[in-house]
Design goal:
Distance between the termini: 50 Å
Number of helices: 17
Mean pLDDT: 91
Shape: globular
């Protein structure tokens, strides 16, 4: 709940004598959620000292935060790590998601045009990211954000430091934007809204594109579209530039290029000398990275340029970036064909 509403809850709990204790000898999450977890108590101390939060209010919040075993299991098996490209592609390159993108684009054409012109990000990519992330808002996440971030901050050692930081950002964000701490839902990793922004990204890149005084990534199409575009702009998107192109490889020198990773750092003419040939025209001085994707019958190769790399700043997986790119192309082509039929 918004922090301003916790005052009434605190008063009621105090009268009833049920305010959870926050003592240094308290046990792990149980009847009182995370309020008795030593790591959570230390976190509360920091939030009080560093950001001026009310201790009793945070005790109420964390007494209701639940440890989620399903979230821990999902963190261990993300789709980007357990699926090969052919299976991953089939999740996102569907007729329903393509047609959903056309509909979303048509319904919000003025906002998308405005974002493209003012922020310099292609409308088709904005639409595709929202489509991949949440099916255009159809699935923004079923997990309470406070549960997801508390579970990962205090019970997932491999990335506890990162999620502790995101939990900190979430509390600050909720205070800034008057978000209900105990009912806001998102992904199993605490990502929120149509574009699935983690709290730090929400605070740093979300924008008030409809100028109503609030950045709302759940219910404001303008803020949703503008914020996705602003994220891409901040990470270096170039309007209208090539994202990726298929390539063929010969010899052995291309393998060293593949090992260089996703960041474009090799000129096209140098790639050719290494036995890598783009299948569409790309200027020789363009920088690109070699991408290998696994299909059922063997690998396919692509060259990812700057805009492809920018998509990976949204999600670091090349599978994700390729799904966004290919979905964006399918949406654009389908929409153009539909418009020609009706003209």
């Amino acid at each position: 709940m918004p922090l301003r509403k916790l005052k009434a809850v605190l008063t009621a709990l105090t009268i009833l004598g049920t305010l959870p204790a926050c003592t240094s000898n308290a046990a792990a999450p149980g009847a009182n959620g995370y309020a008795g977890n030593p790591a959570a108590q230390a976190f509360i101390d920091e939030m009080v000292a560093q950001h001026g939060f009310d201790r009793d209010e945070l005790v109420v919040v964390f007494s209701q935060a639940e440890r989620r075993e399903d979230i821990l299991e999902l963190m261990r098996k993300p789709a980007e790590k357990r699926l090969e490209w052919h299976a991953y592609r089939n999740i996102f390159l569907t007729q329903s998601r393509i047609q959903g993108g056309v509909t979303f684009w048509n319904n919000h054409i003025q906002l998308l045009d405005s974002a493209e012109k003012s922020l310099g990000v292609d409308a088709q990519v904005i639409v595709a990211i929202i489509g991949v992330e949440t099916r255009y808002g159809g699935n923004t996440g079923r997990h309470r954000v406070i549960d997801a971030l508390s579970t990962l901050a205090f019970d997932y050692p491999p990335r506890s430091e990162f999620f502790r930081g995101e939990l900190e950002q979430y509390l600050i964000l909720a205070r800034e934007e008057d978000i209900d701490l105990l009912t806001a839902t998102g992904s199993y990793a605490g990502a929120m809204g149509y574009g699935q922004f983690i709290p730090s990204s929400y605070r740093h890149y979300a924008i008030d594109f409809d100028a109503d005084g609030k950045r709302d990534l759940w219910d404001s199409p303008a803020d949703i579209i503008g914020s996705v575009a602003n994220y891409m702009k901040a990470h270096g998107w170039t309007l209208g530039s090539t994202v990726a192109t298929r390539a063929t490889v010969t010899g052995n020198a291309w393998q060293a290029v593949l090992e260089q990773g996703l960041k474009p750092q090799t000129r096209i003419d140098e790639l050719r000398r290494a036995g890598i040939e783009p299948q569409t025209a790309v200027p020789d001085d363009s920088l690109a990275a070699l991408i290998e994707l696994q299909n059922a019958n063997g690998p396919e190769y692509w060259l990812g340029l700057n805009n492809f790399y920018v998509i990976t700043r949204y999600n670091h997986s090349p599978l994700y970036a390729m799904a966004v790119y290919q979905l964006s192309e399918e949406i654009r082509q389908t929409r153009e064909q539909s418009r020609q039929v009706h003209d």
